Each structure stands twice: as C-alpha cells, then as structure tokens.
C-alpha cells in the first residue's frame, strides 16, 4: 500500500466523517458513510468496488481501506 | 448533588397498559426510498437499489430498527388528512390502557401526558386527551423530553398514594413532524407512537423508588432550537426540526443512565441481578446493551422494542412495559430508565 493512497483515503474519509481517523485505529462506519465512501474511492482511484468487497474487514481501518483499494487497482 | 429521590410508595401499581401507532408502517428500505432525494442529494451518482438495501439491512443490525410508524412523511404537507395528531394517538393508547385496567375514564383523578412534540404551543395535550376520553378530573402535561413519562409516573404515584384516585399516564411523540430532512440516522432511528399506563391502588404493588434529575446546561445537545412563537425565517433555517450535537449526546447519555439506575436500585435496596424486567426508554439496541453492561442488569431481561417501532420518545419505556409485562405476575421486580432532551433523566423500580 503506497503512503499516497492511505493519505487519499484519509482525506476522503475526513470529507464524510466528522472525526478524523488515524491509519490503524478501528473504524466503525455506518452504512450511509460506507456507501458515500465507496463512491468517492471509485472516483478518486478510478476503480470499481463490488458489493462483495464492502465488508466490515475491508472498511475496518484507513490502512485496510487503502489495502483493499490497492488490491482492486491491480 | 441534589436530585429527586422518592419511595417506596406502597400500594400503588400499574393496573393496565396500552399502545397505539399511526396507520403508516414503513420498513427501513421504504424510508430510504421515500426520502431518497433529501438523504442522498449530496452524492455524485444516483443511489442504487442495491445500496439502499445494504443500508436498510445494516441499520437493522446496528440500530436494531426494522420498521417504524409515521403519522407524517417528511417533505409532504404537514397536518394534511389523514395525519393523526399526538392527541389522537394518545387517546387511542389511553383507551387501550383503560380497557386493560378495567377502569372507566370518568373515574380518573388526573390525566398526565408526557410529550416533546405537542400539537399546540399553548394549551395542553392532556386537556384534549382527558376531554376526548370523558375524564373530568385534572390534566397536566410533563415536558421533560423522553424522560417525561418518568416524571409523570412519580407525580401520578404520589397522587394515587395520597388518595386522589386512579391516574392515567400517557407518553406520546410524533418525531416524524420534527425530522431534519437531511439527517440520515434520525430518519432511521425515530418513529411515532403512544403508550399509556393506568396507575391505581393495589396493595401488593409499589413504586419502590424513583430518581429524577435535570441539567439545563445540556439542553442544546438535542432540541428544536427555534424560538417560539415561530417566525418564517426560523422555519426556513430549520429551527423547528431536531438539531443538536449527536456525538456529545452519545458521550453523555450512558453515564446518565448509570447514575439514575444506580441511585434507583440503591434506594429500592435492590441489586441489579434482582431485576426481572428491564423496560428502558427505546433508543437503540447498542445503547440499551451498553447500559446493561455498565449497570449489571441482565441483557436478556432488557426489553428491546425498537425493531418494531424505532425510538418513539416519551412512549418508549411505557410501550416496553406493555409488551414485556403482559403476562408478568404480581410482585415482579421491574426497572425502567430514560434520558430525555432538556436534559432530564431518571429511573424507577416497581414491584408489579
């Protein structure tokens, strides 16, 4: 996972969350935020995230979201 | 710190309970579909049915809410036929409770109505409810947010103990009329409903303890912040829909439950493990669970009704009593607790 993608994920999260998130702290995103974030990630990284990839594990922290984005982008 | 601490009030019991809901029942998915424009208007792309279903199912898991009843659909004209008012809902719940208790409305000494969403700025919901029921005694509203019913319970129990006669306590709220149109969690969490209790003399029963407390410095955490009477500019600003500081509210509320429940148990000389029925204010599955963890109340004895009606404000814990205690035996140990906007909070231990 590139530091750049984690930074971008953090920036997008900040847009949709009121509380800033650190890279490894557990995130408890409500499903409204997840849906908005998926849209933002798809646009920012030019990727397509499938419903099967929208899991609590993949969205459990900034680092895990960045890892999932990295995997999808390959 | 001063607080109201009462009890035991011997010989006073809940003789009957009843509930009432508006006709329109909406699932999580139906709410999201009806409010798609305001709730998802900030998104770049249209929200798909698959995304709506994902949110609807997630909300059932996290909030514990599956469906709710609304007398009004946000975005449609207010007070249009066939919307039921809070008076209509309260009267229906009251009639059910009076029938359950086998008490005639004419015999009621007092009608107490707890609400945060009254039908008018002046006059009272309770006066209209009493008149509709044919109750010619006294009537009074209690306005302490979602804990209003507890304040009414304490008042009513003392009236019964003092020999006044049976007292009707109603909790009613119609949050559908004060929903902020773009607030997603509010749309999923809040519903409309009424619940009622008839309090009367019964030698086996008691209100073993009551704890009540208020702190107005926390009033901005959840409120409708427009001044009354309403002005056009305040209506346009959103001064008459719910607003506040949800994160600060979430941080403060569990401690208030802990304080009230701890004090009520202590005064009743009960341990948390002795409580057979916990009928809390109906907020969310998560908060009810957290309060059980903090207080030692058994989670399997906590009644959770939010799945069928969401958060119905002042009616919540009375509806929980209605459903949970339908077949309870006399002498059952019951605890209720609520935190309401204002902020006011309390708890009570009852011997059924």
Secondary-structure topology with pairs:
The complex is a heterodimer of chains A (74) and B (352).
Chain A: H1 3-16, H2 31-45, H3 62-73
Helix pairs in contact in A: 1-2, 1-3
Chain B: E1 4-6, E2 9-20, E3 25-27, H1 28-34, H2 36-40, H3 49-62, E4 67-69, H4 86-101, E5 110-114, H5 125-133, E6 138-142, H6 148-161, E7 167-174, H7 184-189, E8 192-214, E9 222-223, H8 232-237, E10 243-244, H9 246-268, E11 277-278, H10 285-295, H11 306-309, H12 316-324, E12 333-340, E13 344-351
Parallel strand pairs in B: 5-6, 5-7, 11-12
Antiparallel strand pairs in B: 1-8, 2-8, 3-4, 7-8, 8-13, 9-10, 12-13
List its salient traits.
heterodimer; A: 74 residues; mainly alpha; globular; B: 352 residues; alpha+beta; nine-stranded mixed β-sheet; two-stranded antiparallel sheet; 35% helix; 24% strand
Please characterize this protein's 3D structure.
The complex is a heterodimer of chains A (74) and B (352). Chain A is built from 3 helices and no strands. By secondary structure, chain A is mainly alpha-helical. Chain A is globular. The mean pLDDT of chain A is 84. Chain B is α+β, with helices and mostly antiparallel strands. Chain B has 12 helices and 13 strands. Chain B has helices spanning 28-34, 36-40, 49-62, 86-101, 125-133, 148-161, 184-189, 232-237, 246-268, 285-295, 306-309, 316-324; strands at 4-6, 9-20, 25-27, 67-69, 110-114, 138-142, 167-174, 192-214, 222-223, 243-244, 277-278, 333-340, 344-351. In chain B, the strands form 3 sheets. In chain B, strands 1, 2, 5, 6, 7, 8, 11, 12 and 13 form a 9-stranded mixed β-sheet that branches. Chain B has a two-stranded antiparallel ribbon with strand order 3-4. A two-stranded antiparallel sheet of chain B has the order 9-10. In chain B, helix 4 (86-101) packs across helix 5 and helix 9 crosses helix 10 (285-295). Chain B starts with a strand and ends with a strand. The mean pLDDT of chain B is 96. Chains A and B meet through helix 2 of A and helix 3 of B.
């Amino acid at each position: 996972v590139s530091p750049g993608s984690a930074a971008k994920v953090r920036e997008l999260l900040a847009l949709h969350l009121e509380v800033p998130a650190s890279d490894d702290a557990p995130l408890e995103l409500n499903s409204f935020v997840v849906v908005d974030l998926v849209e933002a990630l798809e646009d920012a990284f030019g990727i397509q995230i499938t419903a099967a990839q929208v899991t609590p594990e993949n969205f459990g922290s900034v680092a895990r979201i960045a890892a999932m984005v990295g995997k999808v982008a390959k | 710190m001063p607080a109201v601490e009462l009890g035991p009030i011997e010989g006073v019991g809940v003789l009957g309970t009843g509930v009432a809901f508006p006709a329109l029942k909406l699932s999580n998915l139906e709410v999201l579909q009806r409010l798609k424009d305001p709730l998802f208007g900030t998104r770049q792309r249209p929200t798909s049915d698959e995304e709506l279903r994902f949110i609807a199912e997630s909300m059932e898991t996290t909030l514990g809410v599956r469906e709710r009843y609304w007398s009004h659909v946000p975005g449609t004209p207010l007070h249009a036929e066939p919307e039921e008012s809070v008076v209509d809902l309260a009267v229906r719940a009251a009639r059910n409770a009076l029938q359950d208790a086998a008490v005639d409305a004419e015999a009621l000494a007092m009608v107490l109505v707890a609400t945060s969403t009254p039908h008018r700025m002046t006059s009272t919901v309770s006066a209209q409810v009493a008149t509709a029921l044919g109750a010619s005694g006294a009537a009074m509203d209690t306005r302490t947010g979602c804990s209003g019913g507890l304040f009414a319970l304490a008042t009513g129990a003392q009236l019964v103990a003092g020999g006044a006669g049976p007292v009707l306590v109603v909790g009613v709220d119609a949050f559908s009329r004060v929903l902020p149109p773009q607030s997603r969690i509010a749309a999923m969490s809040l519903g409309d409903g009424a619940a009622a209790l008839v309090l009367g003399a019964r030698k086996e029963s008691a209100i073993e303890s009551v704890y009540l407390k208020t702190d107005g410095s926390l009033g901005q955490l959840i409120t409708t912040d427009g001044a009354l009477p309403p002005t056009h500019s305040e209506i346009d600003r959103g001064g008459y829909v719910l607003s506040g500081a949800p994160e600060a509210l979430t941080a403060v509320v569990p401690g208030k439950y802990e304080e009230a429940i701890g004090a009520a148990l202590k005064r009743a000389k009960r341990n948390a493990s002795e409580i057979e029925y916990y009928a809390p204010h109906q907020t969310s599955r998560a908060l009810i669970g957290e309060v059980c963890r903090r207080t030692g109340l058994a989670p399997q004895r906590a009644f959770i009704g939010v799945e069928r009606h969401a958060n119905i404000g002042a009616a919540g814990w009375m509806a929980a009593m209605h459903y949970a205690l339908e077949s309870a035996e006399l002498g059952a140990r019951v605890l209720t607790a609520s935190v309401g906007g204002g902020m006011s909070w309390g708890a009570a231990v009852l011997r059924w």
